[in-house]
Amino acid sequence: MTKLLEQVFQKVAALPEPAQDALAQLRLAEMEDEATWDKAFAGSQDELARMAREVAAEYKAGKTKRLNLSRDCRGRRLVGF
Length: 81
What we know:
This protein has about 80 residues and is mainly alpha-helical. It has one domain. The protein contains four helices and no strands. The radius of gyration is 22 Å and the shape is elongated.
């Protein structure tokens, strides 16, 4: 165990049990979420690479245009934003 992690455990050990449990539940949930994302991305590398090649080819062929967010998306909700 690293010294920094030891410091964290010492500080957490000084908290009341409900606070310790809350922190433990939060970190366990974060770790599970990270594992889910890692698994999802591990299986998508080939598809992401294919999409990147497709976009690069479209750019080189002049099939793309610069996006001006202040002009082109005014008043619209962008997916993921």
